[in-house]
Amino acid sequence: MDPLIIEATLDSPAVIFNASTNHFLISGESRPENAGKFYSPVIDWIMKLEAMAFYRKQEMQDDSTLVFVFKLDYFNSTSAKYILDILLIIKKLSGKGYKTKVEWHYDKRGDDILDAGNEFSKMIDLKFDIIAN
Amino acid sequence: MTQVSTAFEVYKFMSEKNILIAFTGYFDHLVTTSLLKNIKNKLSVIQSATGIDKKVYNILVESIENISKYASSRNPHQNIAMLLLCKSDNHFTVITGNHILNNDIPALKEKLDKVASLSSAELKKMYREQMLSKRTHENSAGLGIIDIAIKSGNQIKYDFKQLTDQTSFYLFQTEINIQK
After folding, report:
1. Domains within chain B, CATH numbers bracketed
2. From CA A76, how far away is CA B160, in angstroms rounded?
3. Do A109 and B54 touch (CB under 8 A)?
4. Domain range annotation of chain A
5. Which residue, A12, A95, B4, B59, has fewest beta-carbon neighbours within 10 Å?
6. Is residue A10 within 8 angstroms of chain B, CB to CB?
7. Do A78 and B139 touch (CB under 8 A)?
């Protein structure tokens, strides 16, 4: 599975999804002009992760943890819906027995991102590792 | 006609009212992005342990985005808008203003009154419900207003100034307390 690498811009976050290291990172600021256009390849990629995890578990007895790292400085309310979509896919993976971990990072100067992480966690009933930077 | 004397009045007014940023003109994504970059630099000077610069920035972005959500394509002035950022001893104030059609006012007013009437806990509940139920991803303006109200922790304020039979100028205000 080829990694997905999208560089950060002034209005969109960096995305570095790498199945060979089990590390999936979204970081930066998210207020793209067209959130649907930005997030659809991200969501398409992550949807394919289940097949990869299934194959690895069945064929290679590899059950290592998939680590999803959210390091967002800011996201607008339109992006929030797509972030929720991504989290729901992670929740589904976890529900099917794959080991997953969500790291939700926030800058300890300010509580908006911390609050948003707690809200998402509550919304989808999935435990996050909340990390202050 | 703008003359030197009028310009001085503008300067005096802006200084007295502590207006940090005043912008009027055509808002689109590109203008917004360059404006925000500038504002971010300006706010980084007042960086504080409480992260108020971040909170002000978050609310500014969402407020600007609300302008385009409520502008009607049938309105010739749809993207002509205003942004003000003011600072007093106790709080920052973000005000946006834009043209809207009078026909769109009742539905908007209903939404604003609803948000203004809710407690913080009720707003969070409403936000969760909208996030989970509206899976259409359209630019649902309701979510932005709820988000602003939650983040500011203060009641939102609004006003409509009628311009013509068809249009009004819609003003939207948020205050962010400066914790000391």
Report:
1. 21-177 (3.30.565.10)
2. 25
3. yes
4. 4-132
5. B4
6. yes
7. yes
CA B115 to mean position of chain CA atoms: 15
pLDDT tens figures, B47-82: 677 788 889 999 999 998 888 776 656 666 667 899
Residues A40-95: pLDDT tens digits?
999 999 999 988 888 888 888 888 899 999 999 999 988 999 999 999 999 999 99
Looking at this predicted complex, what is its ipTM? 0.86
Q: Residue A74: its chain B contacts at CB < 8 A? A: 54, 57-58, 61
Measured CA to CA, the distance from residue B29 to residue B31 in angstroms comes to: 6
Please, which residues 40-99 of chain A have a Cβ atom closer than 8 Å to chain B? 73-74, 76-78, 80-82, 84
Token output for B18: 């502590």
A4-132 folds as Transcription Regulator spoIIAA (3.30.750)
Q: Given A74, A107, A123, which is nearest B131 (Cβ)?
A: A123
Say if strands B19-26 and B80-87 run parallel, antiparallel, or are unpaired.
Answer: antiparallel
Sign of CA dihedral B123, B108, B143, A29: negative
